[in-house]
Amino acid sequence: MTTQWFGERVERREDERLVRGAGRFLDDAGHDALAAAFVRSPYAHARITGIDVSEALDVEGLVGVYTWDDLPGRLADPLPLLIPHPDLTHPRTQYALARGEVNHVGEAVAMVVAVDRYVAEDAADRVVVDYEPLPAVVGLDAARAGDRLAHEDVPGNVAAVTTQELGDAAAAIAGAPHVLELDLAMERSLSSPLEGRGVHARWDDEDGRLRLRTSTQTSTGVRAAVANILGLPDVAVDVITPDVGGGFGTKVVHPYPEEVLVPWAARLLGREVKWVEDRYEHFVSATHERGQQHHVRVGFDGDGTILGLEVDFWHDTGAYTPYGIVLPIITATQLPGPYRHRNYRVTFTSLYTNTVTVTPYRGAGRPQGCFVMERTMDRIAEALGLGRDEVRARNLIGPDEFPYDFHMTFQDGRPLIYDSGDYPELLAQLRELVGWDGFAAEQAAARASGRRLGIGLACYVEGTGVGPYEGAHVHVETNGRVMVATGLTSQGQGHETVFAQIVADELGVDVVDVYVTTGDTRRFPYAVGTYASRAAVMSGNAVALAARAVRAKAVRIAAEALEAAPDDLEIAAGVVHVRGTPSRGIPLSQVAVLSNPLRYSFSKEAQAAGVYATPGDPDVAPVPDDDEPGLEARDYYSPVRSTFASGMHAAVVEVDPELGTVAIRRYAVVHDCGPLINPMIVEGQIHGGVAQGVAGALLERVAYDEAGNLANASFMDFLMPYLSEVPTPEIAHTETPSPLNPLGIKGAGEAGVIPVSACLAAAIEDAVGVRMDRMPISPPELWAALAEREAGR
Amino acid sequence: MTAEPVHEVVLTVNGVARAVRVPARRLLSDVLRHDLRLTGTHVGCEHGVCGACTVVVDGEPVRSCLTFAVMVDGAEVTTVEGLAGPDGDLSPVQQAFRECHGLQCGFCTPGFLLLTRDLLARDPDPSDDEIAEALGGNLCRCTGYVNIVRSVRRAAELAGEGP
Known about the structure:
heterodimer, A: 793 residues, alpha+beta, Aldehyde Oxidoreductase, domain 3, Aldehyde Oxidoreductase, domain 4, 3 domains, 7-stranded mixed sheet, 6-stranded mixed sheet, globular, B: 163 residues, Ubiquitin-like (UB roll), 2 domains, 5-stranded mixed sheet
């Protein structure tokens, strides 16, 4: 019997080392490296009129202090614009070290290198920077007003304006029997992984090579940027991603200033140099997300069918636009959700502010889009006196309507076409799972005893597995180990396990014999990165394709050795054998030996591949023209477009009107990411996503004051949830395969977070009858809203 | 500014006597990680809130990022590297976290493992409230805590079954 690994709750390969404390995170190596520390701006917007490093020079143990004036060549240029777009008319990126002007609190102004971090910070404290403060633009209201400018040469603070339209929304709304207008907003948050960023560089002068370890979501991206900026051949730069303590989006930005400055210093000084971000630095220099304001006009008929939708929204992009306008494009194109739209226009304006740069954080523009669409659905239901589930059901795209083409362009530059799904089935499951139909009675009973319960639901569709491509190399070694390498990186998703499951099935080996390496350019130099719920889809399919090529080669070689027809062979338990005759077989390890004709034998087993071992055909070369030595293969997966996962959440909350607190009594998740490779891991992703969603709805916000100081830049003040603040979701899966990739899979990494704010806003509104049009909502805000309503009565 | 005076600190770490000479301001977390090269203890915030740096000092869980090494001269310290058995077998707590998918990126995990060990040493069969009380001061950004709680319950079961 053949073991099937795909679909099993296989324990993670990563955990053995991690539970022993034997992981290798960025700061777990390079103990003797010099330490870098940064002098960062205390002003949101200011001119630098002078930098005096003389006092720092007296610190014993100092090795060097560097400012923009010291940077050579391309290192003195602005950092790359990673994702240009024709509508991004005013792109701005930062300098590795500020050049005469700072545009947010935390921007790097000088780098200090010293014998250790304690000394480096002593010296950094003694660098005196003179600033001439300029008016700061903080928050979307200030950015939209446009009377102050975040960058003096960007009129109205406008980085980009973009419109996409399906049909004729204005005309459809004009002809609709019912029209509503809504203003909806979401505030700023940040990824906040438990491990911050970090960079460790070693320049090998004898080999002329740079080895860069960095806590990133894209090692190949960093490699290309660093080689280019430092003027090194690509092949002389190795970028290695160690164990990474969470990313959630913020680590996909590259190169951060530190990622080019630290290797530059290492080469300059001929010493290893390391920089490890501290928590304050993370808050003020690692990217943020989520701040958006939206205005909605929707036209609908008497049964709740949407006839036309117009959305204008304003996106806070922070101080710079290295990531272009990907985020607002995602909001614009994911906002339609699982609903049939015939007329939809969306226009966004991306605005600069003097705050930390904004790039994707798990969910990436979707939580905002989902909030807008789902709050709109709730308002339509309210206006018509219909059930919220009923209005949604009437607008859902049917299972027979795929592929469903929105005639818009998605964030990957490809058409926005949903590939598959079964949304009515999800809604039916959700209602069952949360007890939707019985809730009214439950709510009334609770109300009779003075308790305020409410229920809400929210639906989303998530484009996952965006291209352009990922690749993989699969190599069966002569010891029988299957070595797999793929270029994208891991931050805790369990890639070593799920990719091993896929390869184990394709090759007929035990999962414990498969060893997966990710994010190491020495092992696989072509890759894109880990973001947008793409790793399982992209690298999962790439490892499958590479493993299939290895399998075909193994069968061909074994067929020759066994004098059997290739079609009669199968592989099970690591042995290629004649189907139905397990005794007539040859282990893959031995096939690996035979795949590589040897002059020099290295073991008893390898003697089988020696030049005198097998006579062979005298007219055929030992390695024919169409063949290569070694039982290995490389292949790539590149999709025509994204595959669309979907899901729905429902929550029952209890609001304490005296305290303004919200307790989550039930939380239900139905989820469709196609066939599950490892249900345990997918559920873990959902748990974590829901926790981050709850945090974003009820707890976390980045609090800037008017001058642009980040007032809660620590875990004391930025309220990340602890164990007692998050619910245990009940989860049900539907598995609708994608027609777009060989494994039929869809992404699952971000799903959990997307609908949570919309869902909890709806539940709170249902509990207390106060409009929830802005998230997050804190207890004092909810209490104040309830008090205001009471006063108004 | 000249070099700081150094102090000799003697610790018993995971049963082994270790001596280091460090400045007064050097954190216990840095001594463990960079001087003794026991990098399993992680540093997530350096202000005592996240608990990733939790180690056990003289029987009590402490935040090693808020502790100067000179303050614990003569102490017995247990880190995550000291959890496995003498033959290298995973402890019940470690096994349970692996079995229940109680970790994702693994960065906060050492703190949770040590708190769990400490909890089960005091109370072999804790209630959910007691688990929340014991672990409720450490942050995890990946798991949503659901499987951490399951891991603690499973660890209690495994420990109860004995070796």
